[in-house]
Design goal:
The complex is a heterodimer of chains A (358) and B (222). Chain A contains nine helices and 21 strands. Chain A is α+β, with helices and mostly antiparallel strands and 358 residues long. A six-stranded mixed sheet of chain A has the order 7-8-9-3-10-11, with helices on both faces. In chain A, a hairpin with a 2-residue loop joins strand 10 and strand 11. Chain A starts with a strand and ends with a strand. Chain B has one domain: Orthogonal Bundle (MetI-like fold). Helix content of chain B is 77%, strand content 0%. The termini of chain B are far apart. At the A-B interface, strand 7 and helix 2 of A face helix 6 and helix 7 of B.
């Protein structure tokens, strides 16, 4: 288990804005993905745990072992922490053989000579790299190179693997192989993995738990499903993507009957009571296109309904995405749309319980 | 007509020792300057590159004053070794080091700064010390340019004239290097000796330059 509670403020960055890190979280064994926009502090978090970045205050523990404690003056060097940091695009060293790369990692940790060779041979065997061991990375198949990067990281038997993005480089990386390797590190070697991935869908595929970061802070944590279905804020919903966000105003609140009313883009929405909100509050309604339903307009819009003018249609593999005025987007089955495709005025419904107020 | 080949051997010896010293200095300071941030980096760069632009006579004069028998440095050397430093072959080595080191530092700095930063980062993440990264990762990856620069430093060390003449003098069979000997032969009007020395010098330096470029940039045709 990783426990982190640190602060670090950076001076002015070349961009002009100052940045500070204020983290407080624990990560259980398994794979925890760090998700957030660029500049959210994912790399800084990983570097702080690895020992490459010294926080101003706070402490970092792994399995109860103190790695950093500003108050007690403890700051263990990178090589004596039970962590290995895989920076983005951590390639093998091209001037060493695959075996040489693994031995380099072993020497960094000051392992005794015999132990070094024993571990390197063991890992070469477990990753089926014996044939490639004496070759330079340039002569080795790409999949073996990727395995070798992981093998090199595992030579020191770390408890924690800190991965900053796929180490193959970000563009056109073979996703499946990367996922398989991360899962192998967790299940076969029992390593706790913290991995920063810039794509939300990847986070969901990879991780048991998510930490959503924004501006140097953890803004939400939970399972990928929780985060995907109940984003904690409009910021998180925007970062995850796939949500449409509408500004809305609270027009009525009735705790007695457990109801509320919202005004949104000309529609009147009714839903359950919103605790902690006041009448007249500006809120954000957050909804997925597939959670809305639409049909050709006929008659006046009722409660939770609004009339929309169809602006654009985008074809998806099994559905169509209808864009209306006021940024309203509805996803519906392609067949249902085909029957009504000549219509321009539609009635859109926000079914109660399908939208969230943030 | 007998040509005295002592200057050639002296030049080769001075060049080799000076090249070795400038490689050591170049690796140390080049690495320092290649680091992204270091205090007074621009000032240090300016001081290091001064010998490239100052006239050799000005530089030589500074050294004469700094290393003379009345200066603290000169006295220190004399008490330590019992000999004076000026007008010995060691002074020629010093002159050569001063002319070759800036080139070496520049090359090392550029070679290290031009390396793919991912390799250094990968090594740091594994827990490598900065010394290990330098010796086992950066230097081997920058091997070509650094070796090329070392050869160039050797050529430059052999070829130094102005500062050498001022602080090592022109003492035949003691401090007369090849470039100084050419000057001496021309002064004496000794045409054959001058021609022979010039030819030898040109061939050696041209060969070294070819080798240096080959090491730095690889073969022209693959």
């Amino acid at each position: 288990m990783i426990q982190v509670q640190v602060r670090k403020s950076f001076g002015l960055r070349p961009g002009g804005a100052s940045f500070s890190l204020d983290l407080d979280f624990t990560a259980d064994p398994g794979v925890t993905a760090l998700f957030g926009p660029a500049g959210a502090g994912k790399t800084a978090l990983l570097e702080a745990v690895a020992g490459l970045l010294k926080p101003d205050s706070g402490r970092i523990l792994v399995d109860g072992e103190i790695l950093f404690d500003a108050a007690a003056g403890v700051d263990r060097p990178v090589r004596s922490r039970p962590c290995v940091y895989l920076a983005a695009g951590s390639a093998l060293f091209p001037h060493m053989t695959v075996r040489g790369n693994l031995l380099f990692a072993a020497k960094c940790r000051r392992l005794p000579r015999l132990e070094r060779h024993r571990r390197v041979n063991e890992l070469l065997e477990r990753f089926r790299l014996e044939a490639a061991a004496e070759q330079r990375p340039g002569d080795v198949a790409p999949s073996d190179r990727e395995s070798a990067v992981l093998a090199r990281a595992l030579v020191s038997r770390p408890k924690v693997l800190l991965i900053d993005g796929p180490w193959h480089g970000l563009d056109a990386w073979p996703r499946r192989r990367f996922h398989d390797l991360v899962h192998r590190a967790r299940s076969e070697f029992g390593v706790t993995v913290l991995v920063a991935v810039p794509v939300f869908e990847e986070c969901c595929l990879l991780a048991d738990r998510l930490l959503v970061l924004a501006q140097g802070r953890v803004v939400q944590s939970g399972t990928p499903r929780q985060v995907a279905h109940e984003p904690a804020s409009a910021e998180v919903a925007r970062a995850i993507g796939g949500y449409t966000l509408f500004p809305a105003e609270i027009t009525a609140l009735d705790p007695g009957r457990n109801t509320c009313r919202l005004r949104l883009a000309g529609a009147e929405l009714a839903g359950p009571y919103l605790p902690g909100r006041l009448l007249g509050d500006k809120v954000t309604v957050c909804v997925r296109p597939a959670e809305l339903s639409a049909w050709p307009a006929g008659g006046k819009p009722g409660l939770n309904q609004v009339v929309g003018r169809l602006l654009r249609v985008t074809e998806l593999p099994h559905a169509v995405l209808l864009r209306f005025n006021d940024d309203i987007t509805v996803e519906m089955p392609a067949a249902a749309y085909e029957e009504q495709k000549h219509r321009r005025e539609w009635l859109i419904e926000f079914p109660p319980g399908r939208w969230r107020v943030l | 007509m007998q040509i005295d080949w002592f200057p050639l051997w002296l030049s080769l010896r001075v060049g080799a020792i000076a090249a070795l010293l400038s490689v050591i200095l170049g690796l140390w300071l080049g690495r320092l300057l290649a680091a992204e941030r270091c205090r007074g980096k621009r000032f240090l760069e300016a001081v290091i590159e001064l010998p490239l632009v100052l006239p050799p006579t000005v530089l030589g004069y500074y050294l004469l004053v700094a290393l003379g028998q009345s200066s603290p440095l000169g006295r220190l050397h004399e008490t330590l070794t019992g000999r004076r430093l000026l007008f010995t072959w060691q002074a020629a080595v010093l002159a050569a080091v001063i002319s070759a080191t800036p080139l070496m530092i520049r090359s090392v700095r550029d070679a290290l700064a031009g390396l793919d930063p991912r390799f250094g980062l990968a090594a740091r993440g594994l827990g490598a010390s900065s010394w290990r990264i330098f010796c086992r990762v950066s230097l081997p990856l920058a091997r070509g340019p650094v070796l090329g620069a070392a050869v160039l430093a050797f050529a430059r060390s052999m070829a130094d004239f102005g500062v050498t003449l001022l602080i090592a003098g022109n003492l035949p069979n003691r401090t007369q290097t090849l470039s100084v000997a050419v000057f001496d032969a021309v002064q004496r009007g000794d045409g054959p000796a001058a021609r022979a020395l010039v030819l030898v010098m040109s061939v050696i330096v041209a060969g070294l330059l070819f080798l240096s470029n080959r090491l730095q940039f690889g073969r022209a045709v693959r």
